[in-house]
Specification:
There is one protein chain. This protein is mostly beta strands. 6% of the residues lie in helices and 51% in strands. The protein has one domain. The protein contains two helices and 15 strands. It has a 15-stranded antiparallel beta sheet that branches. Strand 7 and strand 8 form a beta hairpin. It starts with 10 loop residues before the first helix and ends in a 7-residue tail after the last strand.
Length: 282
């Protein structure tokens, strides 16, 4: 039994999103500011179908985001899950990623490691640079390799800023290709995002809820479908690898997570939120 997760899952989720071009190619659009923070989410099995073979699931996701539009953005992400299958077996998957995205999306550095039952099964490390005609990727792990991707492809924080701008501009459906160095570092994912109607977080600021610091803040319900362009079904139709639904707050923090893999879903509930001191551009 082996389950895997695309690292892009939160680089939305904080991770994670959009297609409208960002002002200055990656600089925060006017009125958009990402708040440095550390969020912890408890993960549990949601809806499941018999063919999934999954009897139970639990886990935790930690997302640590820092930086600003002038210094660049750093992300440390860890996603640990324990699966139980219907035959009585179990497996612990531990995905760990770190990344740094330069201002205006000039470059993107990434390191991703996946452990299964404490054994390293996958490691990807490299750097992508924006060029005049294409983005060039230099991989160090799992093997040294150079490749080019389109300049239209967005890096993760660039993607997040783009979907936030789309939401604030009232755009409800956007599409974009994204690159986050996931898996072997050679894959570009196509995404489509559906943005719902703006709402306000009604939790009381003095409550014990983890999202109390977000009291009274605007958010948009967002669903992002991730596609692997290299695969399709027998009919030639491109099917999503998975779909991610979440509340996207106007400061870039995400809550009320749901990962949909078709025959099972994973629900994520924020259990801790720490807001870091913000540093302004000089």
């Amino acid at each position: 039994m082996k389950f895997s997760f695309c690292a892009a899952t939160f680089l939305l989720l904080s991770g994670v999103i959009g297609a409208t071009p960002v002002a200055a190619a990656g600089a925060a659009p006017v009125g958009t500011k990402l708040v440095p923070h550390r969020a912890v989410y408890d993960m549990k099995l949601g809806d499941t179908e018999e063919q999934s073979g999954i009897a139970g699931l639990s886990g935790r996701m930690v997302y640590d985001f820092s930086g600003n539009a002038c210094e660049g953005y750093s992300v440390n992400f860890r996603f640990v899950t324990e699966f139980q299958d219907t035959s009585g077996g179990s497996q612990i998957t531990d995905l760990q990623t770190t990344s740094f995205e330069e201002p205006e999306a000039e470059s993107y550095q990434f390191l991703s490691k996946t452990y299964v039952d404490q054994k390293l099964v996958e490691e990807t490390r490299g750097t992508a640079h924006s060029g005049a005609e294409a983005k060039k990727v230099e991989l160090k792990e799992p093997s040294e390799k150079s490749l080019e991707i389109s300049n239209e492809v967005l890096f993760p924080t660039e993607h997040l800023l783009s979907i936030m701008k789309s939401a604030k501009d009232g755009i409800r459906f956007v599409a974009a290709d994204i690159y986050d160095g996931a898996e072997t570092g050679e894959k570009v994912y196509a995404t489509t995002s559906v943005i719902g109607t703006k709402a306000v977080n009604s939790v009381k600021s003095n409550s014990s809820s983890a999202d109390a610091p977000l009291s009274g803040m605007n958010y948009w319900p967002v669903t992002v479908a991730y596609f692997d362009p290299s695969t399709d079904d027998a009919s030639g139709e491109l099917l999503p690898v998975y779909q991610l639904s979440f509340w996207l707050y106007e400061n870039g923090i995400s809550g009320h997570l749901k990962l949909d893999y078709g025959d099972f879903t994973i629900q994520g509930t924020m259990t801790s939120l720490e807001l870091y001191d913000e540093t302004d551009c000089q």
